[in-house]
Amino acid sequence: MRKRTVWAVTVLGVCVSAITPAQETQEEWPAAGKSRAAWFGGVIDKMLPVTVYGKVVDLTGAPLAGVSVGIQWEDMSVLTGGRSGNHLDHVQSDVSGCWTLTLSKPHRAFISEVIKEGHEYVYGGKDYHRDLADGKNKKDSPVISVMRRRCP
Question: What is the pTM (predicted TM-score) of this model?
């Protein structure tokens, strides 16, 4: 019982010591003429763009060229309370069904639409709703979107 008490007090002490400098910094910001939004703005300015990758295929797995893929995304400015930061970009798949898009300082990004005349979107596979800006989307493991021919 004594070991658990000592461990809990130690963990609590570490947590409090980690929080205290952050609180002191926030209290010092107004005195230094800075706001929380300005501080986050400085952090956001140091963020790097992220390139997201995808591929569009038919039900047999064959690539589809000329598909318009809509990517809905927010940039990090939404965290500072500034402008909305909402964007919608469209990219076209190439002859191998692949597409890429570089996002500037993304907070999160998702596929919003997959459009090709004469086809209908079926599903985006297991990771369709995954945030594309999470850093796990790589060139060798693109997000897959599946389409099928529309019945006349």
Answer: 0.65
